[in-house]
Every structure is written in structure tokens, then in C-alpha cells.
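Structure in, sequence out. Go:
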């Protein structure tokens, strides 16, 4: 009888895990909290795509705009096959190494650190490492459930933003109460975005030692800070503070607040990506 009850309990536990609902993600993930997930021959490609994720799309809530954030690595000779995105958006931001980025029109470009790429609904992309050093990049997936997909597909936007063509825009007292200057180099900003696009803004940001972004609330969009170098102090909407460094991922969804300060002796450099789900 005990064995029968034990078996029933185990089956119930397995069923509950199998059908577990996605849960709201945290506001801060340090490098030691990332989850490793490797994928083989992605999108008809070759080799292993190594990933270290803050969270993955299968754990995202329907209302989340940003569905997935991962630090990805392709070894020499490996590649992600060219594939089209039907209803979500995918940004590859190159961090280390050299690669070949392709779009759905047969164009191919050499990409290097600082280059930013995106595939919106109806657009295709692929990425290959034909060079000896590892190709390391950020992969960020977002979705706007309320998007007019036909309108997006009919009005295609650029997919490649080379580092040397990013434009400067700096902010004083960022967040309203921040200290000093927030330096930014942008692929595009929210002022240029349409209501249908999920990813509204991507910028490479710098805070000098002692400078900060003040605590501020996001009412209807999401904002992620992904730390590339330096050391800082991240504050969430509940006043909790976290020491952040390279490969730390922070996020504020609609209704949440956040702040960031450079507490180190070197520049604090991070990606700032804003997205919105108009669902």
C-alpha cells in the first residue's frame, strides 16, 4: 500500500512540474545565477550554440515583452541557420569575436564587437563563426502580442547597425534624480519606433565612476540593463540592492522601478534595451 501511495505522489509531482505555469521573473540575475542551456544545429545550422540565460521564453508570461535574454557562444565553424521570425523579434548584439551575419535577402556582413542586429516579424537572420576565436553575443527575444504583423512586414526596417554608425545621445540626471551623465550610443531610440514594434530602443550605455541613474518607474514598457564591464549597484522597486558586474542582467517590467549606480573605479558599461507589449 505504501508503494502505491508513493507512486501516486510521484506521478502527481511529475504532472505538476510538467504543466507548471510560467512565473514572473526576478529583477536582477547575477552571473552566477544564469542558467546554462546548449542547443544543437539551431535553425538548420551546425554545431553547438552555448547559452547562459537569465530567463528563457518558455518561462515568460504572456504579458512580458522581453521573453528571453542569453549570453551565447558559437565556436569556430559553427553557425545558426538563416531563419525567419513570424511574430517575435530577435536581436543579436556582438560582444567578442568576429562573425558573418546574414539576412533573408541573401546579404551577408562581417560583424564585430559593438555591432547590433535585429530581425523583426517577417525578417530572417543567421549567424556564423568562420574565425578561430569564439563568437560571443547577446541574444534578446521580445514580442508585441498586439502588433499588426502585416504592417510590420510591409514596412521592413534595417537589420544591421554597425558600431561605427551608432549615434550618440547623452542624458543628464538620468531617471530624474541621477548623478552626472549617462552616455549612450544607439542603434535606434523609442522616438523612432512604431506601436507595432516590440523592441523600441537599443543602446550601449556608460556611467562614469560615481554617476547614476535615479530610481524611476516604468509605467507601460520594460527596460533591461545588461552589464558588460565594470561594477555597479542595482536597486529594484522594493529597495533591494544588488552588486552587479559583467554578465549581470536586470529588468524592470511595467509597474516596476529600478536604479543603477557606478560604484567602481572604472566605467560601468551596459546594454539598455526597451521593449513594449501592447497586448
Amino acid at each position: 500500500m505504501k508503494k502505491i501511495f508513493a507512486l501516486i505522489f510521484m506521478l502527481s509531482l511529475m504532472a505538476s512540474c510538467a504543466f507548471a505555469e510560467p512565473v514572473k521573473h526576478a529583477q536582477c540575475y547575477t552571473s552566477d545565477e544564469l542558467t546554462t542551456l546548449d542547443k544543437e544545429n539551431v535553425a538548420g545550422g551546425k554545431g553547438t550554440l552555448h547559452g547562459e540565460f537569465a530567463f528563457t521564453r518558455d518561462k515568460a508570461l504572456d504579458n512580458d515583452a522581453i521573453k528571453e535574454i542569453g549570453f551565447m557562444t558559437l565556436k569556430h565553424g559553427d553557425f545558426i541557420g538563416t531563419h525567419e521570425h513570424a511574430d517575435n523579434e530577435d536581436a543579436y548584439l556582438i560582444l567578442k569575436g568576429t562573425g558573418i551575419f546574414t539576412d533573408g535577402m541573401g546579404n551577408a556582413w562581417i560583424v564585430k564587437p559593438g555591432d547590433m542586429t535585429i530581425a523583426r516579424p517577417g525578417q530572417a537572420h543567421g549567424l556564423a563563426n568562420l574565425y578561430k576565436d569564439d563568437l560571443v553575443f547577446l541574444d534578446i527575444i521580445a514580442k508585441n502580442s498586439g502588433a499588426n504583423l502585416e504592417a510590420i512586414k510591409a514596412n521592413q526596417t534595417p537589420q544591421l547597425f554597425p558600431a561605427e554608425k551608432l549615434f550618440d545621445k547623452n542624458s543628464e540626471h538620468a531617471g530624474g534624480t541621477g548623478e552626472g551623465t549617462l552616455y549612450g550610443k544607439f542603434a535606434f531610440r523609442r522616438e523612432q519606433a512604431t506601436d507595432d514594434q516590440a523592441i523600441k530602443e537599443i543602446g550601449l550605455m556608460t556611467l562614469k565612476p560615481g554617476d547614476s541613474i535615479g530610481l524611476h518607474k516604468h509605467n507601460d514598457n520594460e527596460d533591461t540593463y545588461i552589464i558588460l564591464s565594470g561594477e555597479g549597484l542595482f536597486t529594484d522597486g522594493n529597495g533591494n540592492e544588488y552588486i552587479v558586474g559583467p554578465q549581470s542582467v536586470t529588468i524592470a517590467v511595467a509597474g516596476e522601478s529600478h536604479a543603477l549606480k557606478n560604484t567602481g573605479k572604472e566605467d560601468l558599461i551596459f546594454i539598455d534595451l526597451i521593449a513594449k507589449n501592447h497586448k
